[in-house]
Design brief:
Blueprint lengths: L2 E5 L3 H13 L3 E5 L2 H11 L3 E5 L7 H10 L8 E5 L4 H9 L4 E4 L4 H27 L3 H9 L9 H21 L3 E10 L5 E12 L3 E3 L1 H8 L4 H22 L6 E5 L2 H5 L3 H11 L7 E6 H5 L2 H13 L3 E7 L6 H7 L3 E4 L1 H4 L6 H16 L3 E5 L4 H9 L4 E3 L9 H10 L9
Helix pairs in contact: 2-3
The structure holds ligand C2E and calcium ion (CA) (2 copies).
């Protein structure tokens, strides 16, 4: 039976959750604050963690951040409990790597459903992960293998800022010493099920820590100039990869790269990108740039000019994590995007969750009225897939089809075809 760790400082709520889980025969471990929860997570390595966001001392976000830093706890599914239930609040948790959320007050069905779904999804995800691992090239395996050793220990909240400094210094070394890799997650057309493109996602295999999540190190890099050289490296890698695929006759797969606000605001960025495309003889239509609302809102008029300049050259523009930031509909018109990416927090359980269902459908319809292509990200189940298909969504990306893959693996699939998940056709 699965072991579940419940981290909640309010005694009556904790008791209630634990009782409900025990009735369902789960093994339950309790923790009455974040610090205790972190210690129990590390010693028991539970199958699932349910954790309150609002706790004194170490809150739920800090617990999650710390769990994400450790190789052995990073994959444990994490459901957080929040009383606020605002999109920003939920987004913060999801961006840090949480898998699901429950808004207080919730009933026993909500709780048990979320738990059962997460445990079921974990099996799918870990099968996908195992498969990706099995296909991971040897040299990365060696790095991953070493990751189990030498985990830094310590009290999370005290170490956070110091730890961040260390991580940033390590990231700089990683960039200089080629510890970074760009992985590619395939994107498919929902009707034809054909591959339409891929999103380039950074992977960092740290020699001691193992895999470090970009959800953790990108925001950190954004606090320093490192994001500029990192961003440049990502674009260069992606373009080189694209050229290799084309040179080996594997076709012209559209490649999407994530841009950060600082990168876009550099006046020399667009000329640099255009020169790079020209140098490799890459058509601009092969490239899509993904920007978040938060990126754009920082300087609306400058961003708008920059995007127009990219668009005039034929580069595709996608709005990422749509609906999670300032989310104003006027941006959709102002920036004339080509693609709207529906964030994972809406796609999550879209076939069961009424709110997600309504919001997702509204986003699809609205985008289509504006002639914008819609891509749903984080699609994990057949039910989610079917809902999106019926709703008229154009493309999808998610673990149901494939996680992000090492370049060698992606290339192999380009040659031999991507296999579709069971039950799709
Ligand atoms: P994002 O751009 O929203 O990327 C999607 C994230 O969702 C990726 O996480 C991807 O691996 C994950 N994902 C895809 N399908 C599924 C699914 O079915 N289920 C679940 N649970 N997750 C799924 P990842 O790679 O950890 O990246 C996290 C974030 O880090 C990205 O969010 C993006 O904001 C940032 N990032 C990653 N690479 C880069 C980069 O090269 N440059 C910049 N500026 N940011 C990057
Ligand atoms: Ca993205
Ligand atoms: Ca996204």
């Amino acid at each position: 039976m699965a072991t579940i760790l419940v981290i909640e400082d309010e005694f009556p709520i904790r008791e209630l959750i634990c009782e409900l889980l025990k009735i369902e025969d789960y093994d339950v471990i309790e923790a009455e604050n974040g610090r205790q929860g972190l210690a129990r997570a590390k010693e028991a390595l539970p199958d699932l963690i349910i954790c309150d966001v609002m706790m004194p001392d170490l809150d739920g976000y800090q617990v999650l951040t710390e769990l994400q830093r450790q190789a052995e706890t990073v994959t444990i599914p994490f459901i957080f409990l929040t009383a606020k239930g605002t999109t920003q609040d939920i987004r913060q948790g999801m961006k840090l790597g949480a898998d699901d959320y429950l808004i207080k007050p919730f009933n026993s069905d909500d709780l048990l459903d979320a738990v059962a779904t997460r445990l079921r999804k974990r099996q799918t995800a870990s099968a996908a992960w195992q498969k990706a691992r099995a296909e991971t090239p040897q040299d990365l395996e060696i790095l991953l293998g070493r990751s189990a050793e030498a985990q830094p220990q310590g009290r999370a909240s005290e170490l956070l800022s110091e730890a961040d400094q260390h991580l940033l210094a390590d990231l700089e070394t990683a960039l200089a010493e080629n510890q970074l890799t760009l992985y590619y997650q395939p994107q498919f057309n929902l009707k034809t099920l054909k591959l339409t493109g891929c999103e380039a996602l950074l992977r960092w295999f740290h020699p001691q820590r193992g895999a470090v999540s970009p959800g953790l190190f990108i925001p950190l890099a954004e606090k320093s100039d490192l994001i500029l050289s990192l961003g440049e490296w990502v674009v260069e890698q992606a373009l080189t990869q694209w050229r290799r695929w084309r040179d080996s006759g594997l076709g012209e797969v559209r490649i999407a790269v994530n841009l950060s606000a600082r990168q876009l605001r550099q006046p020399q960025f667009i000329p640099w990108l255009l020169r790079a495309l020209e140098a490799e003889a890459i058509p601009p239509q092969a490239v899509e740039v993904e920007l978040t609302e938060t990126t754009l809102v920082e300087n609306v008029s400058q961003s708008s000019e920059q995007l127009q300049a990219l668009k005039r050259r034929g580069i595709w523009i996608a709005i990422d994590d749509f609906g999670t930031g300032y989310s104003s509909l006027s941006y959709l018109q102002q920036f004339s995007f080509d693609v709207l990416k529906i964030d994972r927090c809406f796609v999550q359980n879209v076939a069961q969750n009424n709110t997600n269902m309504i919001l997702t459908q509204a986003m699809i319809d609205m985008a289509h009225h504006l002639n914008i292509r819609v891509l749903a990200e984080g699609v994990e189940t057949l039910e989610e897939f079917q809902f999106l298909k019926q709703g008229g969504c154009d493309e999808l990306q998610g673990y149901l089809f494939s996680p992000a893959l090492a370049p060698e693996v992606f290339t192999e699939k380009l040659q031999n075809g991507f296999s579709l998940p069971q039950g799709i056709v």
